[in-house]
Specification:
With 212 residues, the protein is an alpha/beta fold. It has one domain: Rossmann fold (3-Layer(aba) Sandwich). Helices cover 52% and strands 15% of the residues. It has a five-stranded parallel beta sheet with strand order 2-3-1-4-5, sandwiched between helices. Helix 3 packs antiparallel against helix 5. The protein is globular and about 45 Å long.
């Protein structure tokens, strides 16, 4: 599929967005399992990916390598492009009839890199990536999110409350902007019990897929 042909919403492409510690990874696994259990082919993925570009990003986020924030923005865009267009990437799996669920996508770059290197570069780099058919924005206050993150063995360079406060404000702004542009985004209260969030997401996804 040509780049210029992918700017319309990608049906059956579902994205989870939110701060570190908001619970997107947990719910991604649960949704994939529920869909598969219901006989719906589903593939769970994440960004940064496990591809070479994504592995490089992860090393930077862990603090193993130093990189200018603009370089990180370019790397995320390169990883996302390959994630979409590469072999067994998002577009190919959608064409095969799978539902693709992704932990993080364009909104995370606009929020995170938008704060670290300025809005113009991430906006330019992500302008041609197609919108998901459905996004879930996991809303949580940064302090609660960081209390969850603090239980992990290792922290990444962005997992600091002060930075997460900036990212949270930018996430909110980007969500409203994209909604106004026609993106379908459901807001999830990420402080609710895990099982309750799972049921809400599963119900909304089934309703969406029945329409798609």
């Amino acid at each position: 599929m040509a780049l210029e042909d992918t700017r319309s919403n990608l049906k059956k492409f579902i994205v989870f967005e939110g701060l570190d510690g908001s619970g997107t990874t947990t719910q991604l696994k649960r949704l994939a399992s529920r869909l598969q259990g219901a006989g719906i082919p589903a593939f769970a993925t994440a960004e940064p990916t496990s591809r070479p570009e994504g592995q490089l990003i992860r090393r930077i986020l862990k603090g193993e390598l130093q990189a200018d924030p603009g370089t990180v923005a370019f790397l995320f865009a390169a990883d996302r492009h390959e994630h979409l267009h590469g072999t067994q990437g998002i577009l190919q799996r959608l064409q095969q009839g799978e539902v693709v669920i992704c932990d993080r996508y364009v909104l995370s770059s606009l929020a995170y890199q938008g704060c670290t290197c300025g809005a113009s570069l991430p906006s330019h780099l992500n302008a041609f990536f197609p919108p998901p058919g459905l996004s879930f924005f996991f809303r949580i206050d940064p302090e609660s999110a960081m209390r969850r993150v603090a239980q992990r063995k290792e922290l990444e360079i962005y997992e600091i409350t002060e930075m997460q406060c900036r990212f949270a404000k930018e996430y909110e702004r980007q969500v409203e902007e994209k909604r106004a542009a026609g993106w379908r985004i459901e807001t999830i209260d990420a402080k609710k019990p895990i099982a309750e969030i799972e049921e809400t997401i599963f119900s909304l996804c089934l309703a969406y897929l029945a329409e798609a």
